[in-house]
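Section 5.1 Outputs to date
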Amino acid sequence: MNITPLINYFDQILPLNEEEKNALEEVYQERRIKRRQFILQEGDICKHYTYVVEGCFKMYLIDPNGKEHNLQFAIENWWIGDIGSFHSEEPSKLTVEALENSVILQIKKEDQLRLFEAYPKFDRIFRVLTENALVSAQRRILQNISSTAEDRYLDFVKRYPYFFNRISNVQIASYLGVTPEFLSTIRKKLSES
């Protein structure tokens, strides 16, 4: 198992010593995931906090009418999972699916808590991750309630240019809260201006 990408990621937040690096190897599990395979399905409890080493995932909700609503995408060096279900140990309303063949590193809640107790630096690192996720969620909520669909699309293009070769327009439209047809209209209008 190669946890070097995860160590490098953590080192950018707070550098780890050898003992802390060795502790990571003991608690993280590597998994190889095939395209269209689920790492979390609606109704299951999210038992792992997942770091993406290679690949691409989407996290989504299926509404009562069967419509998919994408909440998050994750690529290399990103985290994905239903944090609410992970912490509360209640069934998730979300599904996490691989969009590409992927490699992930996962930690169980009990192992994460033991890591926090034994090495307080990890508690601080995960607090930074949680704060960053909260900032991102607030920005997205504010944008969804105060911006036009065109402005949301332009912001998505600016923030996440690396997604366009990896995620379909249908999935982007779902993330933005518009129909694929409306997204096509926006893209056509922008290309003509």
